[in-house]
Design goal:
The chain has 253 residues and is an alpha+beta fold. It has helices at 13-26, 43-52, 80-86, 156-159, 243-250, and strands spanning 5-9, 36-41, 60-64, 88-92, 95-101, 106-111, 114-119, 125-131, 134-142, 144-148, 171-177, 188-191, 196-201, 208-212, 215-217, 220-227, 233-237. It folds into two domains: 5-92 and 232-250, Rossmann fold, CATH 3.40.50.10330; 95-227, Sandwich (Tumour Suppressor Smad4). It has a six-stranded antiparallel beta sheet, with no helix packed on it. Strands 12-11-10-7-14-15 form a six-stranded antiparallel beta sheet, with no helix packed on it. A five-stranded mixed beta sheet has the order 1-2-3-17-4, sandwiched between helices. It is found in: Cytoplasm.
Length: 253
């Protein structure tokens, strides 16, 4: 049994050492010629790998050589071909972000985990929230807000006390970050097809930045966010350790 594997690794020494060992054992293919990509690092590197290889339609199998590794499988040099043959595939769709800054420039980016808006000054942000063109919240005073996918719901969204979403659910989580007014607003669950728009109120006085998987835009005037079903990220997990199981387990730890 053989398989054309492209081994990619973060700059961390432990990841580079692992890559050298795996390439020596299994060989190495260019990503464009590979049947599977093995990413070595943490969750941040996995996200970068998914973004950089999304045009290839090749599944990505991550092995943890980082710190968190929620999207990663355990690292081992042996039995990799058998693990790849038995791996279960999850399909996730990213979010698309379209943002206009105060200079009138349009910015676009994709996010696998979440798109977040964060205050960029000493004062709280003031945001208006519209869903599918209908104003739903005239004023949210907060440190920020985010829209998360099910795959990203255990990341920043969970830290901000947002809900963990089952990976197969066709919903998005809209979560406030340190909401001041409405003080008890708990956020919202939205259909995956929803288009979310944030308008920044008093943007000159209360500047806001937007971030989509570490692509940051400053001095935001408005942001629109929606799921991008035409882009499919294929992620491989060892049996019994897929995203569905991890999302359930995370709620009991």
């Amino acid at each position: 049994m053989s398989k054309r594997i492209a081994f990619l690794a973060s700059d961390a020494p432990v990841a580079q050492t692992a890559r050298a060992a795996l390439v020596g054992r299994y060989g190495n293919a260019a990503p464009r010629d590979a049947e599977v990509i093995v990413a070595l690092g943490g969750d941040g590197y996995m996200l970068r790998t998914l973004h950089s290889t999304q045009h290839l339609d090749v599944p990505v199998y991550g092995m943890n050589r980082g710190t968190i590794g929620f999207l990663m499988n355990e690292y081992a040099e042996t039995s990799l071909l058998e693990r790849l043959a038995a791996a279960e595939e999850e399909i996730i769709n990213p979010l698309s972000m379209t943002a206009m800054d105060q200079a009138g420039q349009i910015h676009r980016a994709l996010a696998i985990n979440e798109v977040s808006l964060l205050r960029a000054g000493p004062q709280a942000a003031r945001l208006k929230i519209s869903i599918d063109g209908r104003l739903r919240l005239a004023e949210l005073v907060c440190d920020g807000a985010l829209v998360a996918t099910p795959a990203g719901s255990t990341a920043y969204n969970y830290s901000a006390h947002g809900p963990i979403l089952p990976i197969g659910s066709d919903v998005l989580a809209l979560t406030a970050i340190a909401a001041f007014r409405p003080r008890r607003w708990r956020g919202a669950l939205l259909p995956k097809t929803a288009k979310v728009r944030f308008d920044v109120v008093d943007a000159d006085k209360r500047p806001v930045m937007a971030d989509a998987d570490s692509t940051s835009i400053t001095d935001i005037d408005w942001v629109e966010i929606q799921s991008e079903p035409t882009i499919r990220h294929r992620i491989l997990f060892d049996p019994g350790h897929g995203l569905e199981e991890r999302l359930i387990s995370e709620q009991f730890t």
